[in-house]
Input
Amino acid sequence: MQTDLRSDSDVIEWPMQFQTLSRSGLQRATKRSIDLLVACVFLVLLSPIIIVTAIAIKLQDGGPILHRRRVVGIGGEEFDAFKFRSMIVDADEYLTRRPEIRKAFEHKFKLERDPRVTALGKWLRLLSIDELPQLFNVIRGEMSVVGPRMITAEELEKYGRFAGLVLSVQPGVTGYWQVQGRQRTTYEERVKMDAHYIRNWSLALDLKILLKTIPVVLFCRGAS
Output
């Protein structure tokens, strides 16, 4: 897969501490207004799917409807990112009991053909329905509709010199890596895509990514 990333010699060395991007107040306000508008519209339009999904998850095994993933946001502040639960109830304990699987998970913080995913969860992930509750994170001001991937504090180490850069903006429900290949990309490629997006951010780029997300989701490209 090819991307239009700069070479390593062009990469800015970003320290771990929070960095402020040179965005005008108007740009920030416009992006926030678009986030609120898009999130509210999608929540209204997709409310039947959201309600049916919540009921289906509860009927499946009686477990929680939502999964709260502790991630880092702008400035390194942690928050709970919401997702529809697509795994078995004791997913974390499952990894603890199987160190070989946990080792594979810690390599990319994802598992191909994850054995913890339920039958319903496979469909939720394939259609990206599991991500819909993150629209509430957008309304709460913790995420943006478009942005870099949300990551945990443990993953920051893998970002190396890009760590400070990725902490300078809000993570997104969708983003550059999602429309470029999603699960088909390596972790290193994902990191560079996040850095590329942040360095080259514009409202036009956000709109382009948002429009590209629609066929990616509809045709289940790169989903797992």
